[in-house]
Amino acid sequence: MHILIQDRQCPSSVSKKMLPFFVLSLLPLTVHCSVLTPPRNARIVGGVNVLQNDFPFAVSIHLVSRELSSCGSGYICTGTLISSWAVLTSARCVRNGSGVRVPEELKLLVGTKSRTNCSGAVELPVEEIRMHEGANLAVLRLKWAVTGVETAVLNEYQQVEGKQCLLVGWGANVTQSGPVEWLQEAYVRIVAQEKCSDGMICAKGEREHAGACYGDLGAPLLCDGSVAGVLGVDSKECGGQVSVFIGVRANYEWIRTQLSASSIVRVCNVLIILIFIKHVIS
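Structure for Putative trypsin-like serine protease, as requested:
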């Protein structure tokens, strides 16, 4: 397990004494200290760099098999940490042909806005992939609970036409370009479209040529600061077009049922409590 310690200045060395006793007793830890500065020229279509402390729940999803050459080379999708043990994304991100990928094929990173600075991120091990085939959604359940990371709130309300929302992702900044280095945000507005019936949400960039692009698949649509939708189809055209999101409202109950702790998480929590009690008594 990797622990990220970020500040304006990194100490020359980081001691594990900084971490709680019961965490050290349970899991092998690698501590990383990293100072990250957004690159100046990174842009998605009509988007801007987010600040390091913004959107702490943003998760970059990678294929392990493609990460062999360099960190970040295996990036495929964006996800959202919606509880301490669950990441929400598009089902297309975890499909492998007609089947579903196994958890070991995926590498999830949180805690950094840089797509390629893996040393400054916390890796989230996936225990189980749960699919909602009818809605093209997937929830990636984690092996253990993540602590110290703010999770996103689900938006269960109807999104009205004209409402301003945010699209957040690592998608390309121009047509036929690869994913960007730094996480981007772009303002979009809800629009009425016939193809957005049956629980879908359509949104279009406020600025000309602004919007989703290649690599934004699985990215969250944030309305009133909470997740109202998930980008379900990778954009064939970049910027200016209407993007189609899978609505959270229409799938709220299914998503909520996926958030209970996994068996491994429950066992770990019990062990943590027992070790902590033993330490206090002794």
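The longest helix spans residues 263-281.
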